[in-house]
Amino acid sequence: MSFSRRRLSVSSTRSDSPTVFTVVPKADSEEWVSAWKQVLAKELIDSPVVEVDADTSVEDACETLLSKDLQCLAVRMPHERSPQTVPFYGLFDFADVNAFLTLAATRHKISTDELREKLRVQDILKAAREGKVPVYLVSMLIQSPSSPSEYLGIVSDRALLSWLTNYAQRTPNLLKYLSAPLSTLPLPSMYLYMSVIAARASDTVLDAMKLMSDEGVSSVAVVDDETGGLLSAVSVTDIGKVVAPAQSNQILSTPLKQLVARIKEPDGSTDGVDKFPVYSVTPNSTLFYTMQKLLATNAHRVFVTEESPMSSSPTFSSMAPTNLCGIVSVVDGTSQLTPLVPCLLLTHSHHPSPPPPIPSRRAHIRTRLGSVGSFEGFQVRWAERVPVPEG
Amino acid sequence: MAPFDLDACIAQLLRKQLLHEALLREICAKTKEVLMRESNVVHVSAPVTVVGDIHGIGGYAPHTNYLFLGDYVDRGLFSVETISLLTCLKLRWPDRVQLIRGNHESRAVTQTYGFYTECVRKYGGSHVWTYFTDMFDFLTLSVVIDDRIFCVHGGLSPSIHSIDQIKVVDRFRGASCYYARDHAQLTHCAEIPHEGPMADLVWSDPDPEKEDFAISPRGAGYTFGSGVVYKFLETNKMSHILRAHQLCMEGYTSLFDEHLSTVWSAPNYCYRCGNSASILEVGPGGSMFFNVFQAAPENERDGPSHQTAQNAGGKLPEYFL
Question: Which InterPro entries does this UniProt record tie to the protein (chain A) (predicted)?
Answer without folding.
Answer: AMPK_gamma/SDS23_families, CBS_dom, CBS_dom_sf
